[in-house]
Design goal:
The protein is an alpha/beta fold. It contains nine helices and 14 strands. Helix 1 packs parallel to helix 2, helix 1 crosses helix 9 and helix 2 crosses helix 9.
Length: 310
């Protein structure tokens, strides 16, 4: 047997700097515009371990097969170890030969933030939005950088229980030439876009605290019994999801709002309609994007990065 050529390692710097947020956002938009149906994606699976969870996320398209394995260890941050770790491997679709690998947690950061931005762009995001972000961790940073790649926020307010984390995030953003400030829930009254990127299990704010014409993107939870948004807010707004079956299986914000009688399954709008039909967005209404995270998104971005960088 001949030895396989080693898969190319694509570094975080290559992903985030050479490839970048803008191209990653384009890769997601292109996949959906060309007609990819998230409902046809492979299912991700969860494995319970003594110290946390493992997630296995496979996907394929005409060119590539992708496989991500990441672990989530809730107690790691207290040990100064990342909460999420893992690896992503890209294969040739015809021969299943390994082509490239990258850090799975880094790809998750890029993917999650860029999918959010691709979606909110289709929900009539203003050119200079007033942005409120709940959370001060890596996803909060990635989302602000992704939004800033396609728009110039009028203001950025960060809300989190960890005040030192907020201060660090503000400093990190300044290093990217982006000014932000710590905020309070009062900022919600004027926000054009609210992003929740937390590990919260209960609602972060009340319906009455946001203005009517706002976009809310909830990206922090992928468990059926955890939520960041209140059920009555979900009921007032139009709820956009990646795929109905995935949302009903994993999206606690959606599942609990349905169980509470605020949302009907038939009212959920799959995001593919935003890219492949004449679906009309009311920019004066409450628009909610609830993310679960799907394997096709990793593949769309890493496949595009591989072609651009190799």
């Amino acid at each position: 047997m001949s030895a396989l050529s080693p898969a190319k390692w694509i570094s975080d710097q290559e992903l985030f700097i050479k490839f970048g947020y803008g191209k990653a956002i384009e890769a997601i938009s292109q996949a959906l515009t060309e007609g990819f149906d998230p409902a046809t994606d492979k299912s991700r699976s969860f494995v319970e371990f003594a110290s946390g969870q493992g997630l296995v996320m496979p996907s394929e398209n005409a060119e590539f097969v992708g496989l991500k394995f990441v672990t989530v260890a809730p107690k790691n941050p207290a040990k100064n170890i990342p909460r999420i770790q893992g690896i992503y491997t890209l294969f040739d679709a015809k021969t299943l030969t390994p082509l490239a690998q990258c850090d799975g947690a880094a790809l998750t950061l890029l993917r999650t933030s860029c999918v959010t931005v691709a979606m909110v762009q289709k929900l009539a995001l203003p050119e200079s939005p007033k942005l409120v972000v709940f959370g001060s961790g890596p996803q909060a940073l990635a989302h602000i950088l992704a939004i800033s790649a396609v728009s110039t926020p009028d203001s950025i307010r960060i809300l989190a229980r960890n005040t030192s984390g907020v201060e660090k995030l503000i400093v990190d953003l300044r290093g990217h030439g982006i000014e932000a400030a710590a905020g309070s829930t009062k900022a919600l009254a004027e926000a054009d876009l609210v992003i929740t990127a937390t590990t919260a299990r209960e609602p972060l704010f009340a319906l009455e605290q946001v203005q009517k014409a706002v976009i809310v993107a909830a990206v922090g939870s992928h468990e059926p019994n955890a939520r960041e948004l209140p059920g009555n807010l979900m009921g007032i707004g139009t709820v956009f999801i990646e795929d109905q079956s995935a949302a009903l299986r994993e999206a606690g914000d959606v599942i609990m709002a349905i169980n509470e009688g605020f949302v009907a399954v038939e009212d959920l709008v799959e995001v593919k309609k935003l890219f492949t039909s004449e679906y009309k967005i009311d920019s004066q209404a409450l628009r909610i994007y609830k993310s679960s995270g799907m394997p096709w998104q990793d593949l769309a971005i890493f496949g595009a990065a591989y072609k651009a960088l190799i």
